Amino acid sequence: MREFLRRNSPPGMDLAQEWRVFLIGNISSVAVSFFAFLDQYIDARNRLFTVVGEKKMLIDGAIIVPFHHLFSIYFSGFFLTMCILLGYIVYHYAYFRQGSMSIYLMKRLPRKSELHRRALTLPCLAVLATIGVAIAAILFYFIIYFLATPKACLPYAALRELWR
Questions:
Q1: In whole angstroms, what is the distance from residue 15 CA to residue 34 CA?
Q2: Is the overall model pTM greater than 0.90, yes or no?
Q3: Residue 138 and residue 43 in contact, taking contact as beta carbons nearer than 8 Å
Q4: Cα 79 to Cα 74: distance, rounded to the nearest angstrom
Q5: Of 94, 82, 98, residue with least CA distance to 119
Q6: CA angle 29–30–32, rounded 5-degree value
Q7: Which parts of 96-113 fold into alpha helices (H)?
Q8: Which residues, in sequence order, are bridge partners of residue 52?
Q9: Which of 46-50, 132-136, 158-162 has the lowest mean pLDDT?
Q10: Is the predicted pLDDT of residue 89 greater than 60, yes or no?
Q11: What is the residue-wise DSSP string for 112-159?
Q12: CA distance 77 to 3
């Protein structure tokens, strides 16, 4: 893995900061979106019930809001993380012109695409990994939605059939 990172980053660049931004951005995005989803889901689920005496009773014919309605602005943390990671493309290109001016070394190489490969690969892979984390989080939230909602209250008939 270290060899892959060395071959696909500007020469001599320390990638620790980029790695920290990736980790902190994704962990905080997952945490914020998870608690926001739970808050929205619990509120939507509570609207399915009524209190009779001291007992919670399911409202007859109640349907929970569709899954996509439970997303809010708090899921934009993934988008913000991706934008910051894409900003590292500019930093990688600028890094070639700092200090020892390794841009001159890159221009002497026989493959002219080497400069672009070293500047683009890691930030683009980090963005793809962030998209993967976001999709995994949404799938996890859907599993919670599907399993914790009473089957009669699921909004789609197909989901009710899957629940059987």
A1: 28
A2: no
A3: no
A4: 10
A5: 94
A6: 65
A7: 103-108
A8: 55
A9: 158-162
A10: yes
A11: TTHHHHHHHHHHHHHHHHHHHHHHHHHHHHHHHHHHHS-GGG-SSHHH
A12: 31
Radius of gyration of the chain (CA): 24
* pLDDT tens readout for residues 110-151: 677 777 777 788 899 999 999 999 999 999 999 999 889 888
Model confidence at 160, pLDDT cuts 50, 70, 90, reads low
Strands 49-52 and 55-58: antiparallel
Cα 68 from Cα 142, distance rounded (Å):
9
Tokens representing residue 56 in the block? 């919670």
pLDDT confidence of residue 123:
92
Asked if residue 157 has pLDDT above 80, the reply is: no
N-terminal to C-terminal alpha carbon distance within the chain = 45
Mention every residue, 6+ apart, whose C-beta is less than 8 A from residue 54.
none
